[in-house]
C-alpha cells in the first residue's frame, strides 16, 4: 500500500472521516475522494504526502479549519475542496511554496481574506472561491496571474476598486465578481486588457461609470451582467453579438438602439429597472434566438411592435410598469411557447384577446393588472391549464367570472407537493435560470410583493377592482391549490360559497367591497394557512366563526357589515335574531309572525306543547306574538 501512487474513489458511497493513516502513503501523487459522504476534518497527516500534485475532496461534508500542514505540499497543482462545510480563515502560508494550476474553495463557510500566493509562479489557470464569507480586497498578486483563464468569487463580502486589482490578462475568459461590494468603473480599454473575455459578471455590486463604448470589439463576449449597480449613461449603439445582455436595476437612460436587432445570438435581453424611454425598437423582432425580453420598470412609450411576433421561441415577455398603450397585437400568437406575459401597470386598452387561451399552452403567468382593458373575461382563458397566476385587477372588465375557470389545472393541485416530487429541470432551463431570475409582483395579503425564487410555488387569482357582477360560483372552490384569491371591489352578489372551506392552501382571501349577503360559512375556520382575510363592506350577517386562526383577525376585517356579530366586533350574538316574515291567512287578515329560535333539544320538546296550545287557541296566539314582538324590539334597541 505504501507504494500507491494514485487513489481515485470518486462517486462511491464512502462515509465517515478520512483516516489519519492516509499520511503513510507518502508516494501518492493523486488523491480523489470527491462526491462521497465523508465527514470530519481534513487530517493534518495529509501534509506528509509531499509528492501530491492533485487533491480533490470536493462534494462531501468535511468541515472544520484547513490544517496548516497543507503548506508542506510543495508540488500541489490542483486543490479542489468545494461543496463542503469548511470554515475559518485560510492559513497565510498555505500556498507559500506551491505553484497552483487550479483551486476551488467554493460553497464553504470560509472567512477572512482571500489567500495570498495563489498566483505564485504565474501558472494559475482556474481559481474559484464563490459562496463563502471572504472579505477585504482581491489579492495583491492578482496582477501577476497573466495566465489565469477562470476567476470566480461571486457571493462573498469582497470590496475595493475591482479593475485596479487586475492587470493585463490576455487569456482571461470567465470573470464572475457578482454579489460582493466591489466599486470602481469598467475601464474603456477593457477590450485590450481582457480581449478573450466570454463571461463578465459584475452584478449586485457598487460599480459606477458607463458601459464602455469599446465593448463592441469584444467579439467573444457571451454573457455581460452589470445588473444591480450604479451605472449611468446610455446603451452603446453598437454591441457584440452576445447571448446574454443584462443591465437591470441601474440608472441607464436614453433609448434602446434599433441596432440591437443585429444580436442574432441574443437569448436574454434584460434592461428592466432603469430610466429608459422611447419606443420598443422593431429591430428586436430580428433576435430570433430570444427567450427572455424584460423591459419592465422603465419609461417606455408607444405600443408593442408587430415584429415581436417573429420571436418564435420567446418564453418570457415582461413589459410591466411603463407607459405603453394600444391593444395586444395578434402577432404574439406566433410566440406559442410563452410562459410569462406581464403587461401590468401600463395603458393597454381594448378587449382581452380570446386567442390567448388557445395559443399559450405553457403559460404560467398572465398579468394584465392596472390597464384599461374592457369587455368581459374571455371564457377561453380556462384553456390555460398551466396557469398559476391570473391577475386582471384594476381594469374596466365587466360581466361574470367564467364558470369554466375550474379548468386551471395548476391552481387545482398543491404545487409544493408537485415540486417536492419533481425530477428537476432540463439543462436548458437550468442554464437560463443561472443568468436570469424571473420576478413578478403579486398583490397578496394587502400589499404588492415581488416573487422570484418561490414564484414557481405561487398560485393566485386576482380580479379585483373591476365591474364584475354575478355570484361567486362553486366552481371556483375546486381550485384547491390557490394561495391567493382576490375578488374585491366589484359588484358580486349572493352568498359566500360554503365549499370555500375546500381551499385548504389559501393564505390570502379578499372579498371586500362587494354586495355579498348571507352568513360567513363556518367551515372557513378550517383554512389553517389563512393569514389575511377581508370581508369588509358587504351585506353579510350572522355570527363570525370563532375557532382557530379566525380569532386572530382585526375587526376591520368585517367592518361595513352591520348585521355581523361576534368577536372581534363589539356587537354580541347572545340575543336570538327574529326573522319577521308576514304570512297571509285566508280566514282573516291577521299577520302571524314566525320566530327563528336556536335552542337545545330539551328546550324544544318542553316548549313545543306550549306553542301547540297557542296555535290552537287563536286569541292567545295573536296576543302572545304581539307581546313577544314588543319585547324583542326593545332588546334589539338595547343591543
Automatic annotation (TrEMBL):
Its main location: membrane. Belongs to the RLP family. InterPro entries: DNA_repair-toleration, Leu-rich_rpt, Leu-rich_rpt_typical-subtyp, LRR_dom_sf. It is found in: Cell membrane; Membrane. Pfam families: LRR_1, LRR_8. Keywords: Cell membrane, Glycoprotein, Leucine-rich repeat, Membrane, Receptor, Repeat, Signal, Transmembrane, Transmembrane helix. The chain crosses the membrane at residues 599-620. GO terms for cellular component: plasma membrane. It is a single-pass membrane protein. This is Leucine-rich repeat-containing N-terminal plant-type domain-containing protein. The keyword Membrane applies.
